[in-house]
Amino acid sequence: MVSADPAQIEAEAKALINNYYRTRSNCSGLSAYFNEVVKQYYKKSNVPLSEIRKECEGYHGKWQYTEADISNDSYVFTHNQNGKTYVDFSMLYKIRQNEVDDWIPYNIDVSMVIDENHKIERIVERRIEKL
User: Fold this and answer.
1) Which of 14, 20, 110, 117 is least crowded, fewest Cβ atoms below 10 Å from its Cβ?
2) In the beta sheet, which residues pair with residue 6?
3) Is the predicted pLDDT of residue 43 greater than 80, yes or no?
4) How confident is the model at residue 40 (pLDDT cuts 50, 70, 90)?
5) Which pTM does this prediction carry?
6) CA 18/CA 92 separation, integer angstroms
7) How many angstroms separate the first and last alpha carbons of the chain?
8) Are 38 and 50 in contact (CB under 8 A)?
9) Which long-range contacts (CB under 8 A, 24 or more apart) does 81-86 make?
10) Domain covering 6-130, topology
11) What's the CA gap between 51 and 27, in Å, rounded?
12) CB proximity list for 107: less than 8 A, separation 6 or greater
């Protein structure tokens, strides 16, 4: 049995998270990040991907512009023997409705569980602070 290199797992998790937040408004592409049922999606449990797509479309219908800046040193990883990776990180998240609007910045602390197939199994925002 070959165990995966923790540094490689962490690099892949960072890439997954950054890609998710960069392409988050592409609601039809969420299957790249989630399984068909997500164990925890923010405040909901056992959420079908079809429901996540609907929420995504509603959110990005209102907030058309989003940006996430995640500092590389804010990531904290915990590797579980079952192949899952627990990731905690902080990000500066900015939203605006129209291109001419001012950005509304937030500091957000996020916890994720990434499963052995490199999909987000759980995602929770632990703290949201409007700046």
Assistant:
1) 117
2) none
3) yes
4) very high
5) 0.86
6) 12
7) 48
8) no
9) 82/116, 83/115, 83/116, 84/113, 84/114, 84/115, 84/116, 84/121, 85/9, 85/10, 85/13, 85/113, 85/114, 86/111, 86/112, 86/113
10) Nuclear Transport Factor 2; Chain: A, (3.10.450)
11) 11
12) 90, 91, 92, 93, 127, 128, 129, 131
Question: Domain map of the chain by residue range?
Answer: 6-130
The pair phi, psi for residue 7, each rounded to 5°, is -65, -40
Q: 10 CB contacts (<8 Å, ≥6 apart)?
A: 75, 77, 85
Residues composing the chain: 131
As a whole number of angstroms, the distance between CA 60 and CA 73 comes to 28
